[in-house]
Design goal:
Blueprint (H helix, E strand, L loop, with lengths): L1 H31 L5 E3 L11 E5 L3 H10 L4 E2 L18 H9 E4 L7 H22 L2
Antiparallel strand pairs: 1-2, 2-4, 3-4
Helix pairs in contact: 1-4
């Protein structure tokens, strides 16, 4: 009986977890929908949102450093397919390579509240505004 009850708890927790992550992902989509510097990657129905991916048009690594300097949880780990499988390491996958070079992963979970999500949007806009001003001084 114990293993069955554990299964039920894990199954229920998984549904709750997926629902909470979806709700947080929706907050990211809403907050970033008018941000012209990034595209929010929307997940397929039923997907689990482990990270909310955004694609940055330019200066991904520098923006990532900026976000981290503001104590925003963000990573860029999303390797191209050619680096994952030994038998295709010498193949070229342009879509996978481009996605890997532009992606930033954000946290759709309770450690990132709505105010922080809105702050992420502002910091991205600030970063690009500041970068533009520095280029044109």
């Amino acid at each position: 009986m114990l293993p069955l009850s554990g299964f039920i708890i894990r199954k229920t927790t998984g549904i709750i977890d997926r629902t909470i992550r979806k709700d947080y992902s929706d907050l990211f989509v809403t907050a970033l929908k008018n941000n012209t510097h990034v595209n929010v990657v929307k997940h397929l129905h039923g997907s689990t949102y482990w990270r909310q991916n955004i694609l940055v048009r330019e200066n991904r690594d520098d923006l990532l450093s900026h976000l981290r300097s503001k104590k925003i949880k963000a990573t860029a780990y999303f390797p191209s397919i050619s680096s994952l499988f030994e038998d295709v390491q010498h193949e070229i996958y342009p879509c996978s390579d481009e996605f890997s070079s532009k992606v930033i992963n954000l946290w759709p979970w309770i450690e990132t509240n709505q105010d922080e999500i809105e702050n992420i949007d502002m910091e991205i806009k600030y970063y690009f505004q500041d970068s533009y001003l520095k280029k044109h001084d």
